[in-house]
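On clarity, I found the account of how folds are encoded harder to follow than it need be. For illustration, here is how one protein appears when written out as sequence plus structure tokens:

:::
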Amino acid sequence: MLRRKLLIRIGLLVACFVVGAAVAVYLLQDAIPEIDRINHDAVVLVDGMHDLDDAIAEIENARDGRPPSGPLDAAMPAERLRAAMTTIGAHEAIKIKDSPQARAYAALSELLPVFVEPGNTDAAAQRENRVRVHELLRELAKTARGFVAAEQKDFHGYFRWLVLGLTLSALVMVNVAVFVLLRTAMVVLKPVGQLVEGSRELAAERFDHRVSVAPGDEFGELATAYNRLAEQLQANEERKAETLRQLAVTLNHDLNNAMATIEMQLSLVGRQSGGNPNLERYCREIQTTLSRMSKTVASLKHIRRVVLTDYVDGQKMVDLERSVEEAGANPSASPTGAPTTGTR
């Protein structure tokens, strides 16, 4: 029972850690592709803007009769311009309706055909179109960079909260694990401590001590066995004490009869002593000894627990004083005033 209880607790704890780790891995793996997507979209947008700027510059250089500003490309500047616009137009930022970058892209798309093929447009209009194209190009680049920065900022905030949430969850799991382990340890340590304390009480011959452990597991069975053993030892001790008390009653009865006879003879001897002080002193000593014997035998009736002490090597005797004290009786409360004459 105890083994199953421990396995259930530890198994649930391990399962919670495994599930928590799996959830953390899933969330992190879901965030990594998002990082790759944002970085890829940013690179695509930047490359598209760079190609668009190069194509516009090549068209202007060709129109003004200046040499190319960069290495020659196999594709014509107009074709590169259309390819760059297609790449930029396919970006997610441009597809957002009524966004600044979408409006700048739409205006630039309307103006570029006139910029590429001015036709009969006069020089002033061409210069105005050129200025307008560069303004729209700068606005598109600025709004596109702002969109990428906002997207990265949002993802960084999400990723920060994700890491913080996982960290807090891990701390909570660790605290819960510590709590569960402490409770599990108490399930073992508390009954073990009670059983150890019970063993000490049993070794000290205090057989009235009982161990209180909740039943239902191996410790409960041990506690039941301990209490049963203590009851048996206590019953044996009580039988011994009862035997001694019965023996005390018998001895007290016979001894009082003998003492009554001896005291009667001592009274006769005292009356016939003729005032002899030595004889009177001897009679008093005999009476004192008889009284001490009567007290010793009477104290046997108050024994509730047998306490042995060393008498000689290899032999023990009953310590009457400690036996009475251990039982909660006071030796001075023994019937010292018991009658020393007559029978009981």
User: Anything to note?
Assistant: Helices lie at 2-64, 77-89, 100-116, 123-203, 218-272, 277-299, 320-326. The longest strand covers residues 308-312. The chain has seven helices and two strands. Strands lie at 308-312, 315-318.
